[in-house]
Design a protein that fits this description.
This protein is mainly alpha-helical. It is 63% helix and 0% strand.
Length: 150
């Protein structure tokens, strides 16, 4: 008996998820809409149109949103300068970063950082380090028993 294979087409949104995954994983790299379209295996114009129709925002806006969300996280949890955060999330213009960040979060990156506890408050000290520095400096373990028995 011959095996019959059914050819099923992949839903269009599945191709778009490849592009979305690319943006999520490589937001800090210099990727653009052309790279995302290539990942989705669609032409740039068709990709942009379908992406916006499916997800409600343009590919460029989606990538910028991912970058700004990551920047907000870095501002809350590190003491990096705003310029370092800007570069770390894949943006090159501090002015554009500050403007876009202000539109999204309602305040400048510096004001946003100031509204959270300092990054040092988030620093976790490993338990092994805590134990080492928590031990007494002068041990009396064996000395106590030898002093008690003359």
């Amino acid at each position: 008996m011959a095996t019959v294979y059914r050819v099923t087409s992949v839903p269009p949104a599945r191709h778009l998820l490849r592009a979305k995954d690319l943006a999520d994983a490589h937001y800090a790299e210099p990727i653009g809409v052309a790279d995302m379209a290539r990942a989705a295996r669609l032409s740039q114009a068709h990709f942009s149109r379908e992406f916006k129709r499916t997800f409600g925002e343009s590919p460029h806006q989606y990538l910028l949103t991912r970058r700004l969300e990551r920047a907000a996280s870095l501002l809350r949890t590190t003491d990096w300068s705003v310029a370092d955060v800007c570069v770390a999330v894949g943006l090159s213009s501090i002015g554009s970063f500050t403007t876009s960040f202000g539109r999204m979060f309602g305040k400048s990156p510096t004001a946003y950082r100031a509204s959270f506890p300092p990054a040092a408050a988030w620093a976790m000290v490993p338990a092994c380090i805590t134990r080492v520095y928590g031990r007494p400096k002068h041990r009396t373990f064996r000395e106590d028993s030898s002093a008690a028995s003359p």
